[in-house]
Write a structure and sequence with these properties.
Length: about 140
């Protein structure tokens, strides 16, 4: 996509491991956080997943949108690449932004991506320090 971003907007790009799913986000990142819920642990294959929300996500790759898996019926779904399995996105019915799995971004170095909280702390593994809660979590 060669279109220039709108005045004052922020754009980031990302995608899955194999490149089949690609995306561009627009807007400022919202509520970067780690999640320790059982679904994220199983879906991500680790003790936490690192999420951030964006108001706009445009699917630009050959694969279009990710394959959506409903994790909570009528409430939440997670998106992954049907070819390589990379977890790239989430849609939650009570959150207006589209969640992006931060490691799916091409550049994860932004200060605005540093986690400000950790959701579902009771599920956190005891050997990994939790993220200090510098911004109240809307869940868990």
């Amino acid at each position: 996509m060669n279109a220039a971003p709108a005045e004052g907007s922020e754009e980031r790009s990302g995608g899955c491991y194999c490149g089949w799913i690609r995306f561009i986000t627009r807007g400022k990142p919202v509520f970067p956080h780690l999640c320790s819920c059982k679904d994220c642990q199983k879906f991500g294959g680790g003790p936490v997943m690192w999420w951030v929300g964006f108001a706009t996500v445009i699917w630009t790759g050959e694969g279009g949108e990710p394959m959506w898996i409903e994790t909570f019926p009528d409430e939440a779904k997670r998106g992954c690449c049907p070819k390589c399995g990379t977890r790239v996105a989430a849609i939650d019915s009570d959150i207006p932004e589209i969640g992006i799995n931060v490691p799916a971004l091409d550049d994860t170095s932004g200060e605005d991506l540093v986690p400000v909280s950790q959701s579902f702390r009771p599920n956190a593994v005891p050997w990994l320090p939790t993220v200090p809660d510098t911004q109240h979590s809307p869940v868990g």
